[in-house]
Amino acid sequence: MRPGPALLLLGLGLGLGLSGGPDRRPPTPAPRGARGTVPRVPGSPSGDLLGREPASARRAPPEARVRVPARPRAAVLRSVRGARGLGVRGGGGGVGGGRARLSLRPRAAPGGGVILSGGRDLCLRAGRLAGPALRCLRAYVLLRARRAAAAAAAAAAAAAPTHVDLQLSAPGGRLSLRWLARLPRSLGRLEWTFRLGLLGPTVPTAAAAAARVSPRSALSRGPRSYAGFVARTKCPTDGPTPVVLEAVNPNSSQAMESSVSCQISRSGVCVLDPVRINRNDDSPLQLTRKMEVTINATVKAHCPIQSFFGQYWKLFSVASVSDKPDWTKPLRNPPFKSGNSPSSIHISAHSLSWGVYLLNFSVYILTYDPEIPLKKDSDSIYIIIVRSPLEVVIPGDTNITVNFTDGLTLNGNMSSDPDAENPLEGLHFFWYCTTDPRNYDGHDITVRSKEVCLPEQVDLRWTWASGPILTLLPETLHGGRVYFFRLVIQKNDRTAFSDRTVHVLQGPAPAASISCIENCDTVLIISERFSLSLECPRCKAGRDVYRWSILSSSGDKMPFDWTGQTTTGRNGAYFSVKAFAFRRFVEDKLWISLNLATWGGSSLVLRHPFVIHHVPETTECKIDPAKGIAFITKFVVHCSSFKDKNIVLTYKIIVPDVRGFGEISSLKENNFGSILYLGKDCTAPPSFLPVGVSANHYALKIYAQAYNTSLGAFSQVTLYATVQAPTDINSSKAVLQELLNSTTGPDSSLSTLLQQQDFLPAGYLMYIVASVLNSMKTDSRLQADQIRLREHLFNQSFMLPVNTLVEISQVVMTVTKLTQKTSEFSSVVQKLATVRIWQASQALQECHQREKNISSEQIESVSTGILTSLSNILKLMAHHEVVEEPFHVVESLAETVLAVKVPEDKTTAMRTSNFNMYVKKTEKWNVTKFFSTEKHCRNCFYPTLNVSSVPSLPANAPISTMFCEFSDDPFPWLNYGENILTEVVGFRMTGTEATGDVIEITPDVVEVYLIRKNLSFGTFNLTVGPSKESHKADESLRKTTGAFSFEVDSRAGKEVLIHIVTEVAVLFTVSVYAGHQITPTALIATYLVPHRIPPVAKDSDLFDPDCTVTEARVVCLPPSLLRVIAQRTSSSECTVAVVLQAPHFVLKPNDKLVRISVFSAQCLDMYGIQNDWREDTCVVGEKTTWQKVHCICKNPGRAKRQLDAMKLANLHLRTHYLTARRRPQVTLREVAPQKHPWTPATSEHWEERLTMWHAHETDNAHSQEPEKLPPTRRSPGLPKASVKATSKRRPQPKRAESQVSRTQRKNKNANNPNVEDNQSVSSGDHPPQPGATPLKEKTRIVLPWWCVYVAWLLVFVTCSISSFFIVFYGLTYGYEKSIEWLFASFCCFLQSVLLVQTSKIIFMSGYRTSKPKYCKNLPWVGNCRYSEIKLQSITKNPEEMRRRQQHIAQLRSSRMYQPLTEDEITIFKRKRRLKRRAFLSLSYILTHFMLLALLLSLATLLRHTDGFYYNQFIRDQFSVDLASVTKLEDIFRWLNRVLLPLLHNDLHPTFLPDGASKILGLPLMRQVRAQPGEKTCLPAKNFTQDSLKREIHCHPEYGTDPEDTKSYSGLWNRVSKRALDKTTKGFTYKPREKRWVYYSYGRLHTYGSGGYAFYFFPEEQQFNSTLRLSELQGSHWLDEKTWAVILELTTFNPDVTLFCSISVIFEVSQLGVVNTSLSAHSFSLADFNRKTSAEIYLYVAILIFFFAYVVDEVYIITRERSAYVKSVYNLLNFALKCIFTVLIVLFLRKHFLAVGIIRFYLSNSEDFIPFHAVSQVDHAMRVILGFLLFLTILKTLRYSRFFYNVRLAQRAIQTALPGICHVALLVFVYFFVYMTFGYLVFGQHEWNYSDMIHATQTIFSYCVSAFQNTEFSNNRVLGVLFLSSFMLVMICILINLFQAVILSAYEEMKQPVYEEPSEEAEAMTYLCHRLRTAFGFLSFKSKAEDQPKFFVNMLYGQPEKNNSRYLGLKTRNINGKKMVYLVV
């Protein structure tokens, strides 16, 4: 038997609403899924239902009252859902006697545990209480075991009911209840709840029935026999009176109390308990239209004299929950019926529509007694009819397993909306897929990882299924993985989802192997590329994962630069290594390894072996002679010292000529050239060399290669020679004749070689002749012979074979050299060259297919020659002739280069001056992805090719793409040639089938960005300026405007684009007007043009604003807009005026900020060579701008033409060509905006500018007529539709004088009202105009002389009258007060007259005098008429006149009247600089010392001395026995013995003993500990297995292991949730402070402000704290998980106004020892009360100085700019200002922190007050103040540089600085050596060397000869040697070396410092001189001319007499300038 605590609630209306009588109907269960109700509605018919009022106050309005016959039976109260187990179980509803047994039914609790509940009626006979009948109570018992074990809870829930015996008695008229129960102990701690309700009198039969209770149920024992006995509670019978019920807890001696009220009703009183509609909670009842519900209410009433009892249900429609309904308008036909019981209603399905309703239930009782008022009450409930949730149905299991080769279909067609007639109507389906189920968070999809199902997924959305069915084809998902699919359906705001888990099994492993593409021999040729590919027919293209590696012979991975040495990387199906990539590898056998992870889930490892042999080595090659002349000197190349293991080598001598050659990006070095020699001899035969490069002084490069034929590799040497042109020594005619003799005729050298079939030397001879031809200057007399010679050479070149690569190279090089000089080309030569290079290209392809050992680099090298020849041929395209052959060469060249490329290789770029080609080979699946990533391109090409586009090609089929660019129009014979706007580009795409056939491919979509060739065409600068109303408008309303106009032909039906090119990031408003009129009626459209987003049409009612181009700053005028303008102007060729308006950004007209480009573009397409460009295939894209044209082509046509040119009859061109042209409706050839009139021309006269200024200043009349832009005029010969752009600002001023008269004509601008239209301005003299009025003199009023005296008289009279009234009025306050007022008035008068006015006059006069005066400052009219002053006639005799004239002549010839010399000017300037420097120095010194005084005053206010003594006092109090704490148990002993007596002061609570320090708030002790759990440490290696039987557990380490932050109930057992209570039992974690952050610094670590808190209460007795500490110690609060225990409190001493934050930290080290530390920091707070403290004035002064310093420093930085950082003084100032700023910030931070914490303390004094945050900020502020004072005092040296010794010291340190640094480095090295040695040798035994910090401090003390603790008890010998060597090295040598370096520099700098002029000394001398002059009147001695010698020596020093540089003329560099000065 274990009864728990009980809570008795007695009184009326406090029951659970259980039925109490035999006639009560059992409750009706609620429908499934229905919810409860919300709080009662305010203003319901029965009053305020939120807070109950008396019954009289809860009266329904008259409209709501219903008179119906009463029903005597009460209603049953029941919730909608019904509370299971809350009814009477077993006991029934009968009325029992005073004793009863109650059955408690068990059930599972929602939050865990078990609940037992039951109810019963108890009655007392009438004799026990005054009354005629029995008195009955309804008893309901609720018992909950929250922490019952799971097994115990399940057993209890399944067990039989538990019986509880109750006994009700009323001794002395007071009610008493006793209970007894026997419960199992497995239920744990129990919670009892008793609820009693008074039922009133009952019939005697019920009492008799209740009396039959088993005798065993009676409680026979007394109250003290049961531990769970509840004390008797006396309930008075005379009305409701509060009493105290006490429930005794057997587990504790403390009682729990609660205040309730009891009431026993008298007979004849009507009682109506509060009516309540049964509900589970206070939320609304939510139903759907398909649901039905029964709602019942509970009515408890007792009224023996009732005459009417009514119960009514009403339904109201409301807008939303909590809305007040109109009580007078309920629903007339409510959809429910009351049934048999009026307290219960039933709402059937589909009876209510969607919405919110309020259901009200009211009860009325009327009695026969007229004195008893009407009893009424009501309750309301909200009912929400919501729509049914959507239903998602996917047939099948939730978990699906499929094979990798099988498909899958997820069908969501069965999903529906239950409320809709058509289930699928309006549903939207969304599929999602992920491999991480965490991304699905219930209903939400929260992306927590990027684990998607397919690589193409951008997010979790599965975009390939948009309907209810998701179909997955076989091999779509990766094998061996699990996928999580989700179907989400949505309809309006309703959503639902369903999940499926799909497990894809691993697929079969495919058959795969590695095949070699290039360099496939066993021995690898390292000078060539190495290419491999993966052969895997069953692999999934684009899905598999590849990883290539290089393995050594032992199987280890070799390091390799995969990015720089490969062109394909290591993660593709192809692998290509650059040439010479393995040159640094040792000769060995290696493996290429491929790790293949297939899409099916299997993994393969494949290998390919190869062997590395290095190429032959060479040491020397030479050419003889090194200089010569082409075609005259024969050169010999000899190579020696080639070594290659006794293998015969083949030598090749190549003469490259790459000047003007095309470039190919795949070759690092192109060694293509003509072959001079090929053979096995190491010496080449004597041969001619071509002419060298003239720009390089005829230097020529030659390659010598040695081939190892067995390996196929070669070694190369580069030689240089100087070969001049033969025309340098011979005439051009002679040279040409020599060339003809060598190449023409049967006996020529060329013919001989060809006859002997020496084709290689023959081709080289042609190359030499072509080189000499190209070097010859153009001569018209020889041009015919030169052309004939070229034709002959081309014809002879056809005799050269093209079977091998060497032969092809020789032919290509010869043709390239012959085509180099295009000025000597003929049409025959052009055709011959085209055919020959086409043959060479075809032969190169066949040679590559025939000979597999030819490297790809050799093919690409020869291709550069073909590319160069092709570029030269394209330069000769003619307008009158159709030439198709070069374009066949383009395609053939692309095929040749693509044939040696591997898929996924980098794009190969081939560039020439006028033609570029880009080739790329990639797999079909990767075409779109690869080209979309190309960003850095000139003309960008983006094709789109779907995998299913070409069914005959698999997904991994290689696709070859060629893209070419023509800088010039390659089709000049076609139309639109003159209108071509961009470069012409072409592309071709082919694919290779499995059979090897090549097919043409047309991409689905092609996007091309074409660069415009001429950006200046159609672009002009627009003049913008302030609008005409800018000077009148507010600053925010000021605008900048500009305008232009152009003519356009609207019949073309294309857009016109206006691009605003500007760097100004403002919002432009573009207004488009029809015609020249700029009036509101002519406005057609307005566009808003932001900076980075496309323009937006604002007014678009008249036209369709949709336009193709949507680019930022590009205004697109659609054709519909142009048609509207044409209708307005009644002409298809109309004028469009455009006005730009923006916020104000210019002050005057400017034409440099905004440029306008007006154009219209059209994309053209052509397949092959056709008759003309096509316009119907490609359209302009949305990204078109003035720089580029965006073209989009979809399925371009394939029109093919037969070619009928030389030997190319059966070939067709298959290249698509694209370009763009400008539309004819806007011609941009002439764009000439007029210049702004306020931009003066260079030849403009000042008279013209003056005239314009006068017109601007005088013209204020503005014309009211609509303004027009100047009419445009067409120039002769220009197209009719040329653009006419004019400036909207002002017309251009005329420049020449003869053009001045042209300003008379009307040339008015659109917004310039400041220029007169009809004024004439000439350049000559201007006679006065007839209508002009002369200037009138200003009338002046001059007062007579006596007015001054009158004015003074008025002043004195006024003062006298004022004095009289002051005395008269002051007599009312006493005679003395009136005299004081009079004296004060007199003093004010004297102060104003003598001081204020005088000072004002002096100040104003000085201010005006300081300002320079110019002629413009002189007024034309003044008060004095100087012209009217007449001189008195003075008669002089001739002698006097002559004498005066001589005197004047002498004065004029004297030095006084002579101009100043340059030296005098320099002296005056120097004196001026000196004066300025002196006053600046004086001001700087004064401000510096003022700041220093303020900072010292601030330091004084911080009370450092008081703080020191206060800290010492606190430390003495708290440090008692602190050193004895070494274990965790010692902490509690110290707390009890030392801390508690300090905290608890019986005489003065909350004050420390023996002092006046008050404890602020509660002291806090907190523990920082590790999370529970053992940390396992691995045993040491030297432990044997037998000696270590178990694992070793280590202590957790702070900062590494996680901190414990959970809350515990006791003994470190975690609880689910606890409140932060200071007296709560258990261990509660106090989180870290977030508002007031601070840290606790211990010896070992730094801790935050969180931890397990324990508070001390200083106001309580010490015994309470001792008891609480004992309980804390008994519950093992400190254990092995404890890291630190921190005690924190704050005290305040009002005597010295100091706060002190105290922290005592006990830290547990890893050794188990407790380290203690005590910190106390005292600080004061600023006093800002002006009445009690003057500190505020100091703070204001410091702030003023701070702002002044910041402004001064900003000014200096802006003035000096980059030179600022070059001055050490500036850097010192900047550091001082920064530290000053930090000080101000910390001061404000401290103040606001203190204010917030003090406010917190005033409102929460019973809490810990974190003053430690203020303490730490104060500490930081003191440190910053120390640094600031240090720098400020250091800066004083700057102002003491006028002393000679100070300058000498600074200069000596500066000179000795390098030596000081070197010696310091040496000292540091030795210092570190001794520190490390001491730490390692003596660290374990000596405290001074126990760690690196102590060792550093010890060595520092040794340096200053402070030798302490030098016993070295562990090793005295080493200690003696250590100290001896230290004294010898450090003290005797290095420290003295420091002094020697500084002293030597000091002696050396004495004379130079004496000789150098010092501005500071001169300034101080000037100031002293002025000071002596100012105070000279105090002394009657004669003024001394010279300064005292002592003063001079102090400022300038004394020279060294023995120094060789003593006195005399000196020349030195001072401040970078050479200066000559004299030392005296």
Task: Report what the structure shows.
- This protein is of the alpha+beta class.
- The protein is 26% helix and 24% strand.
- The strands form 20 sheets. A nine-stranded antiparallel β-sheet has the order 56-55-54-58-52-51-59-53-57, with helices on one face. Strands 1, 2, 3, 4, 5, 6, 7 and 8 form an eight-stranded mixed β-sheet that branches.
- It starts with 7 loop residues before the first strand and ends with a strand.
- The N terminus is likely disordered.
Q: What structural class do the secondary elements suggest?
A: alpha+beta
Total strands: the figure is: 77
* Radius of gyration based on Cα positions: 54 Å
How many angstroms separate the termini?
119 Å
Q: Please mark out the parts with pLDDT under 50 across 5 or more consecutive residues, or reply none.
A: 1-97, 126-134, 200-267, 1197-1211, 1224-1250, 1260-1338, 1420-1433, 1580-1589, 1616-1624
| Main sheet strand line-up | 56-55-54-58-52-51-59-53-57
